[in-house]
Amino acid sequence: MSEARGARKDLTVPLQVIRERRVASGGPLRFGRTLTARAVLVACAVALVSVLVTLLVAVPLAARTAERQAREALGAQARLTAELLRFRLDRGRANDEERLIRQLRKQGIEAYLIRDGTPDRPGLPPQLVDRVAAGQPASGVRLVAGTPSIVEGRPLTGGSGVVLARPRASGLWWQVARNLWLPLLGGLTAGVVAGTLLARRLARPIRNAATAAARLRAGDRNVRLPVESPAEAADLADALNALAAALATSEGRQREFLLSVSHELRTPLTAIRGYAEALADGVIGPEGTPRAAQTMLAEAEHLDRLVSDLLALARLEAADFPLEPARVDLTQLVADAAEAWGARCAAVGVVLGTEIAGGPVPAYTDPGRTRQVIDGLLENALRVVPPGAPVVLAVRPPGPDGTAVIEIRDGGPGFTDDDLAVAFERGALHQRYQGIRKVGSGLGLALAAGLVRRLGGRIAADHSPEGGARFTVSLPSAP
C-alpha cells in the first residue's frame, strides 16, 4: 500500500508540468474540459433532475393525501353531527341546534340545516340539497357561497339533513413544497458531493496514466502505475506497465545490438587502418604490398556487407522496399546457389550436399531476395561449421498447405532450445555467444527472417539430423 501511495505521489509531479505546458501552448484547462469537471456537472445534473422528479411526484401525492385526510375528517365530523342532531330531534330538543352550529363554526366548518327540503340559509347547490333531502348522503368538492369547499351531507328524518362545508385549502401544493425544500436541498447537496468524489476517483487513474505516458515519452522507463480498481483502470495500468517493460527490454536489446554492430564495424576498420598506417610508414615493403592490399580489400568487403545488411534491415519494413515477385523454379534457384557456393565450401573443407527434386518446384517469390536469404543462411552456416562437417541445401515441392520448402542444414554446433526462441532477433545470439564461439554481427538471421516475411513466407529454426542447425524457408507456390 505504501508503494502504491509513493507511486501516486511520484506521478503527481509531472502532471503539473503537463498542465503548465498545455497552458503555455495556448490550450488552457478550461472548466468543463476535464473528465472530473464533466463528471461533476453530470452528477449535479442527475441530482437536480432527481430532485425535480421527486418534487413533481411527491408534491401532488402529498397534496392529494392532505385533501383526502381533510375529507375523511370532515366526513367523520358530519356523521357525528348527524347522530347528535338525530338524537336531539328525537328527544324534542331542537333549540340546541344553534349552539352546535356555533361550535362547528369555531372549528372553521359551516353547518347548514335542511328542513323539509329547504336549507336554513342560502349558499348550497340545489342538487346537493335535493340529494340530502331525498335521504342520500353526499360528499365531494362543491361551490358553496361562491367558494370551492369540501362538503359532507348526511340525511336526517322527514326530509331533513345537515351539510358541513369547509373551504378547500388554497396553495396546498406550495405549502407542501415549502415543507419539502429542505430535504430536497439536502439530497441535491449530497448528490453533488458524491458525484464530485466519484468523479475524482474515476479520473485519478486516467490522470496517472497521462502522467506515466508523459514520463515514458521523456525517456523514463522505470515508471510504473499502481494497479487499482475499477477493472478498466486496472487494465489501463497493466497495459502501461507492460508497455514500459517492453520499451525497457527493446531499448536494452537495441543498446546491445549497437554495441555488437560497433564491435563488428570496428574490427575491419582496425585492420584497414593498421595496414594503411603500415603502408604509409613504409613498414611493409614492395613485396608485401599485394598481400596487404588483398587483406584491406577483404576487410572492406566485410565492412560493405555489414553496412548493406544494416541498410536492408532499416528499409525492410518501409513501403518502398523493392520486391519483384514472379513465378520461380526453386530447383534451378537452389542448383545455382549450390554451384556458386561449392568452391567456397571446398576451400574451408566443408562438404556441400544438395537434395534437389527431380522436377521443377514452382514458387511465387522474388528470385533475387530469395537468393539473398539462401546466401545469408549459407554464410551463417559456414561461419560455425568445422572442417569436414556437412552443409546440405535442399528443396521440396509444395505440400498440402501450398508452400514450397527450402532447407539449409549443417553439422555445426547447432542451437539449444532456448536459442531457437531468439534465433531471428537482432544480436541475440551474438550477445549470448560472444567470446564463447565464433559468431557474426547478429544481422544475417534477422535480415533473412524479415525478407521471408516480406515475401509472404515463413522461416523456422530447428535441430538438424546432421547434428547442427536446420533453417526451413516456406514460400507460397502461387500468388
Which percent band covers the strand fraction? 15-25%
Q: Which stretches of 5+ consecutive residues score pLDDT under 50? A: 1-15, 22-29
Q: Which sequence of strands runs across the widest sheet?
A: 2-1-5-4-3
Helicity level, as a percent range?
55-70%
* Major β-sheet profile: 5 strands, antiparallel
Helix and strand content put the structural class at alpha+beta
Distance between the termini: 58 Å
Instruction: Provide mean pLDDT, rounded.
Output: 77
**Rg (CA only):** 50 Å
| Number of separate helices | 12
Number of strands: 12
Descriptive report:
The protein is α+β, with helices and mostly antiparallel strands and 479 residues long. The chain has twelve helices and twelve strands. A five-stranded antiparallel sheet has the order 2-1-5-4-3, with helices on both faces. Strands 7-9-10-12-11 form a five-stranded mixed sheet. Helix 2 runs antiparallel to helix 5 (172-217). The chain is rod-shaped. The two termini are 58 Å apart. Residues 1-15 and 22-29 have low confidence and may be disordered.
Essential attributes:
479 residues, alpha+beta, 5-stranded antiparallel beta sheet, 5-stranded mixed beta sheet, 58% helix
List the helices and strands and how they pair.
Blueprint lengths: L1 H23 L10 H57 L5 H10 L3 E6 L2 E2 L6 H8 L4 E7 L2 E9 L5 E7 L4 H46 L13 H51 L7 H27 L10 E4 H18 L3 E5 L6 E4 L1 H18 L5 E7 L6 E8 L6 H5 L6 H6 L10 H11 L3 E6 L5 E8 L3
Quick rundown:
This protein is of the alpha+beta class. The chain contains twelve helices and twelve strands.
